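Notebook, p. 212. Picked up where the previous page left off. The plan for this session was modest: take the two constructs that came back from the sequencing core last week, fold each one, and keep the raw output in the notebook itself so nobody has to go hunting through shared drives later. Recording the first one now, exactly as returned: residue sequence, then the structure token string.
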Amino acid sequence: VKEKDRPIKVADPLTASAIRAIRIIKEVPNVEKVFINDLSERALNFAKRNLELNQIDPSKVEIYNETAEIFLLKTKYYDYIDIDPFGSPVDFLDAVAKSLAHRGVAGFTATDTAPLSATYPRTCLRRYFAKPIENEFYHEVGLRILIKKIAEVFFQYDIPIEVLFSYSYKHHFRVFVKRYRGAKRTDEVLKTSVGYLLYCHKCLYRSTLPFTDFRSLDLKCPVCGHTLDWAGPLWIGNLWNPSYVEGMLEETANVPVSEETKNLLKVISKESKLQTVGFYTSSALGKAFKLPSLPSKRELLKELEAVPTHFSGEGFRTALPHGEVIERVKKMVGL
């Protein structure tokens, strides 16, 4: 809303009770209209009743009874589209890519975290055309696979994206992307932000390989010589726009949100300033190197110049080389 010089147009294609549409109309300034849709007529009856109960101006809403894809393609172009399905958002990606206005934002939720996080790897391969991995940061890998899927659908229409904000919370992933224009910019994003994760289950070494460098793939760990595992293709670019996260944190002074939400934003605010692919956990380090004791998280953050991650209570990110991390951790426990 802040960057537009006009009222914005919003789509809620899977509206159900219309709670999100109602909140947007009542809480977000400068909204021209929210277009709501649901395939279920029963759901729309509840939505209409809820609009009345909340005294929503009828001129602020248009109601449709279509599949989400047909609705979006009929009514485009939107400044914000919210996709919050039960399960995977993949069915709706194509219609969103075609219906989102230039510099518009789309929010996607995925509750199929089990396939994305390697519990059902074959499902992940079919649905997202990517291989997940079982390690200490498998939820981050799942989120990155989801973003890659969003990106590849947008890219096929020469639409580059920027990830503004993303997170993993309980049983869902959520990501907000902003779209731009241009084949050249799409090529640049593809070159720098899509690739593979290389990971060693023995010494926890991790690195990334750009998608275009696949032929130079070496599956021997440069630290311990063990055979590397891999995941992808996935998003290896940023998970957050740091200034956008700061803006969200500032907005909590104006919008009533829970303490849980504020705490999540505070952690991600720190995390967004050190955007590594993958993180460490004290228990994974202890297991891999048979440490006699585990340093406290506070000690690890200080010694490894690290920041906490919202993905795991015991997790932390550091920009130090992997060998340096091992050396410092072992020194901390007297090895």
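Okay, moving on. Second construct, recorded in the same format:
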Amino acid sequence: GEEGPLKFDLVVEVRPEITIGNIEGIKVKRRAVEVGDKDVDDVLTRLQESRASFEKVERPSETDDQISLDLVPGAWEGQPDEGKVIEDQKFVLGAASNMPAFNENLVGVVAGDEKVVEVVYPDDHPNESLKGQSVSFTCQIKEVAAKVLPELTDELAGEVAGGKTMA
């Protein structure tokens, strides 16, 4: 048995050469982007919101105010658990991230108030021990502060983007 020469096929991909024919007369449409006044207003509002500050006020709290408070979670048997004071919490009233009970019950409070807020945790709450439980929180109100939006001035524009004006 004499062996013959070894044979194999080699497949190599070769990119085809592309010749571009006449491209004159092909129309390219540019989409006009229209920016309306509302779009500009939306951006400016978001800008103001992002730079908002809170200033202490001596009036009952309203939606969008920031409330500073100490929270004393009630023990399950309804006894406040003084060992667990959660100090200096800040709530912006009406924020979607708050539990609805706080948004509903902390409207109209003033510094120095103590308000008990009953929170009923849903049955599908991620924390096992809280599922379906109702816990009352004693809220000791320390401060009510109103949201202050900065004025739309060139100064604000310059802070956001160096050297820019509102225009």
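Notes on construct two before I forget. The chain has a mean pLDDT of 87.
Flagging for discussion at group meeting.
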